[in-house]
Amino acid sequence: MIKEVFKPVSFEEAVKLKSDDVYYLSGGTQINWTPVTQQRLKEGKPEIEKVILLKDLLSAEIGKEGSAISIGAGVTLQEIIDSDKMPDALKKAAKYIASRNIRNMATIGGNIAANRADSYVIPCLIALKADVETVDEGIMCVEKYAREEKISLIKRIILPPLDGVCVVDAVYKSSGSYPSVTTAVMVSKKEVVIVVGCVSKHVVRLKKLEQSVLNGSLSGSDLAVAVEAEVNPIGDLLGSAKYKKYLAGTMVAHSIDLSFKEQSRKGA
Ligand SMILES: Cc1cc2nc3c(=O)[nH]c(=O)nc-3n(C[C@H](O)[C@H](O)[C@H](O)COP(=O)(O)OP(=O)(O)OC[C@H]3O[C@@H](n4cnc5c(N)ncnc54)[C@H](O)[C@@H]3O)c2cc1C
Q1: Domain 164-267 - what CATH class?
Q2: Is 106 in the pocket of ligand 1 (CB under 6 A)?
Q3: Entry pTM
Q4: What is the gyration radius of the CA atoms in the chain, in angstroms?
Q5: Residue 31 gets which letter from DSSP?
Q6: Would the CB of 107 count as within 6 Å of ligand 1?
């Protein structure tokens, strides 16, 4: 239970207040959520009692910065969906969180920092080559922030222009369950990005396969088999490890196929 709340007046003060047992609080949908608290206790971690309120510090603006889009870390997932500046793939990713009430509170910065393996937004941001600007460590790509389990205070997200096609996908055991596997791919003339969620502690980018997909030497069922070999999911109520591997393979192969078709349709 939260017992003490800090309300800093500057980013610098917020960073100074942060310590191992003091947490940033943005939308609060992850930090205040009973299953998350229960999971912490199960892992032997203490309950969260002290938080730093970010609401008044974080920008909730979506703006243009040259050819890039700047998204304040305080922008909610619903605002992403409602904005006409956002790529369709990111809107679709945000909408995968089914509850509008949650989407109205949950922020994009909080989603990245929560760093959940089943985040819908992180795979899409990685595929879109997005960066985060942090107060304590400057600008870095979203992939690095997630992979290195950063806890730096996120100020904003920078989305470069999409010079290709981005496709996101998610498969569920049932309409109310969390995803068994999530994927996001981006295909352009110069680059392919492949990202998979729910198959390890964090969302993973399958860099090793991307060049072969780009040069056309890996596609279809061969690509599906290669993806299966690259991911190491854990079996749970949402699917066995073997099933999640199979899903990851087929979803990536299908999304890549769709992206190439869409890319050549756009180029025609
Ligand atoms: C019913 C339900 C279903 C959900 N389903 C999903 C799901 O399927 N996938 C998913 O990814 N999430 C899910 N969530 C979790 C959560 O809603 C999202 O991850 C959300 O985007 C978190 O944003 P927030 O602003 O509420 O974060 P908060 O709860 O405020 O914070 C989350 C974490 O990020 C840190 N933090 C917050 N803002 C920042 C910042 N700007 N810089 C640095 N650190 C920060 C906090 O200290 C905390 O550790 C679900 C939540 C609920 C209640």
Answers
A1: alpha beta
A2: yes
A3: 0.96
A4: 19
A5: T
A6: yes
